[in-house]
Specification:
337 residues, Jelly Rolls, alpha+beta
């Protein structure tokens, strides 16, 4: 275990700055696997600063080919253009493991709102033969796929696994940022939870209704890797209560931390509230991948993030229990429809 002296910087890290962020940093991942530990350490320090002060950052040179991105976006557009009855046949409420289609206002991420103005398609891990993993907790079970869209499954899974590899490459950097060994999360991510969504936002027109948004204000689960198109919609809430636009930047992805990291770090790393509001007058598409740990991993505060003055703030639960409770709450309001 680290000494008290080495623990103090993390315990008090959230007090380093009094200011509210006004922009989201851009981090270059080109040297994420550099053989020089000093180079990796410098990159981890950039990530640490973003995680403590913002909870969001862009990444460039992330390793996902542009062709893979564009092919998957094309697949998403083909799916959402299907007749409603074909999409509803894959309704997520017909699935015991939260896989499939969600229609407009089918989710309500912020309980104070009346629904989220987007359509979604959710999928998870499967091997090339189509099997799911037998021990995925609430997510155990296969994906559902639409008929009549040749190549859709293959195109979408290609991006899924590329994003999964990117997510796995970030865990050693998060570990370094927390002054932990680079392999600290290895035994916690042997079969990591990963839920990917294809999202379609129609333009929100007419009278402004703050109780209907593309996605209502919320925090994430572990961390998210987000591709967004050129239509601005994502907004991040700073500590002064101001919404900061996470404007689309070509060639980048957006990474944001979630509640699992907040629990691990006793809120030293930020799980920042955000939302999506599409007032652009045109359609918007995005692809988030929600990356987590194995479902049996306990979410308990790291020793370096607690002290007598900063005791653990959260009850200990497993990652699987937490994911299931959040998903059930998100879809509860439309379950009887």
């Amino acid at each position: 275990m680290a000494s008290n002296a080495s623990q103090r910087p993390l315990v008090f890290a959230s007090q380093r700055t009094e200011s509210a962020f006004e922009e989201i940093p851009i981090i270059n991942l080109e040297h994420a696997r550099n053989p020089d530990p000093a180079v990796r350490r410098a990159l981890a320090d950039e990530i640490r600063d973003a995680c403590i002060n913002v909870g969001f950052f862009y990444v460039k040179n992330h390793g996902i080919p542009e062709k893979t991105v564009s092919t998957t976006v094309g697949a998403a557009k083909r799916f959402f253009a299907l007749p409603k009855e074909q999409k509803v046949a894959l309704d997520i409420h017909k699935s015991a493991n939260f896989k499939g289609y969600t229609g407009l206002l089918g989710e309500n991420t912020n309980p104070e709102n009346r629904g989220d103005l987007h359509e979604g398609f959710d999928l998870g891990w499967e091997d090339p033969a189509g099997a799911s993993r037998a021990d995925d907790g609430a997510m155990t079970g296969g994906n559902v796929w639409p008929d009549g869209l040749p190549g859709f499954k293959e195109d979408v899974l290609e991006y899924f696994y590329a994003a999964l590899r990117l997510g796995a490459s970030l865990f050693p950097l998060f570990a370094l940022a927390l002054d932990l060994p680079e392999n600290y999360f290895d035994d916690k991510t042997t079969k990591p939870a990963a839920i990917m969504r294809l999202l379609y936002y129609p333009p929100q027109t007419g009278e402004v209704d703050d109780r209907i948004e593309g996605i209502g204000a919320h925090t994430e689960l572990c961390f998210t890797i987000l591709w967004q198109d050129t239509v601005p919609a994502l907004q991040v809430l700073n500590k002064a209560g101001k919404w900061i636009d996470a404007v689309p930047i070509p060639g980048t992805l957006v990474v944001n931390l979630g509640d699992q990291f907040a629990r691990w770090t006793n809120d030293v790393f930020k799980s920042t509230v955000h939302r999506a509001v599409n007032r652009s007058g045109t359609e918007r598409y995005s692809i988030p991948l929600f990356f987590g740990t194995d479902y049996d991993v306990k979410l308990e505060a790291l020793p370096s993030c607690v002290s007598e003055d900063s005791p653990p703030k959260y009850e200990v639960v497993t990652a699987g229990e937490y994911v299931k409770s959040r998903l059930e709450a998100t879809y509860a309001h439309s379950k009887a429809d």
